[in-house]
Amino acid sequence: MIWKSPPRGGQRTGPVLFLDRDGVIIVDKDYLSDPAGVELVPGAAAAMARAAAAGCLLVGLSNQSGVGRGYFGQAELAAVMTRVESELAAHGVVLDGLYYCPHAPGQGCRCRKPGPGLLEEASASFTWDVTRSWVIGDKASDVELGRRHGLGAVLVETGHGAEQVERVRAAWPGDPRVLVAADLAEAIDRVLAGDGDGDGRRVP
Q: Which residues are catalytic?
């Protein structure tokens, strides 16, 4: 589902960073439903500002199964989303788009990552070059979404990322477009530096 789409006026084109929300942009607090609990991951906003200044579009892709599980409703989700945008705006960062899946696992939707639905929705407003665009997240499902569709992928070790590293290593051994970074700041710095074909901390 679309939380935020770009203003009308045709497709936006450019390198796109598709960013997971919980554990990447904000601290993961397990099915967050209270906007007072929104806390940016240290360095995340500044890194997003660097990416935007370099010409990247910033698009959020987020699984929000708390809705489908009945832990909170759309109103609570909206309040948290609004607070995230407000916190980013305080650092001069504006998300170009934000898409989310409200379904629980097993509901058979196409939008729960690594399903293609969120990218399909984003394609109505954005056109991206897969060689210059990335999915950045803290789960193997984020990496899988990116690689299924030809995009680079970065697993960050914040959120659930640290416990996902070995799984990612096993699934994508030697893939130069699968990187591991300590956090979003390092992920963005490496993407901007062109590390997709370098060695650094790529998955061995």
A: 20, 22
